[in-house]
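INFO batch 0412 | record 1 of 1 | parsing
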Amino acid sequence: MLWANLHGSFTFGLAMIAPIACDALWRATRSERAVVFRQWFLFALLALGAACLNPYGPEMILVTFRTVALGAALTTVAEWRSQDFTHVGAFEIIMLGTFGFALFRGVTLPWLRIVMLFGVLHLALSQVRHADLLGLLAPIFLARPLAEQFKAIAADGPPLAIRHGMLLPFLAVLAGGTALASLRGIAPAARITPENAIQSVPLAKAGHVLNDYDFGGYLDFVGIAPFIDGRAELFGERYMLRHDRALSLQNLPDFMRLLDEYRIQATLLAPSTPAVGLLDRLPDWKRAYADDVAVVHMRR
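INFO prediction complete | emitting tokens
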């Protein structure tokens, strides 16, 4: 229930119930399988019910299917693109380090656990946003097989009293880190926060605004209706692709039609957006503001 109210990835948690239940049935003896099946079936029903305890009920689960159905439009959003291995990053270091450890120690896994692990690894490689999902679920898949395989390590572990004694300092560090983060303030990244542009130009009174995808959330926050924001499943594949191709000038005539069709009176775009250079040269538009985060054009 907590997961369902924090992040949309909870649907993957529901999806993983089936393969984990199959793994439990595979490992159970023939006499135990009826009981194991009944327990997992009951758990699946309760988990599904708990996931529906949110302000939108089952609609939160359906949103996942509508988002996946966006198809090619997802590639226009950075977090839905595949991992970038043109430079060494944290994800690559952790992944290669884990594979190296498995080869060095001779780790073996049951075939169903391998399928589940490779499934979330595929998601993490194909879409950046699922790297956290791999970090969340992989330890759950690996915990029991590793504990059974390295019993000597588990037997040589610290006494129970020491392990329990470490809980309080751990919680203290966690609480201290949270308090420090709250004192320092938590804010979106500067590259998606066109605060100075909005304070300098009266966009709220300008009329319809055409914005970059990354600026939509901040426009929502300050009460200005965006052309597009992060709620991709509401806008749909066709709308998102048209917006992306227009601003990148892949379809220049359609960009001009879009300005008139939606009666756009102002634009709020990142400096690197190709449409910025075109707007600078159009006689009906003037540059009203620019910094390293955003550029504003107003219709004359």
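INFO post-check: The mean pLDDT is 89.
INFO record closed
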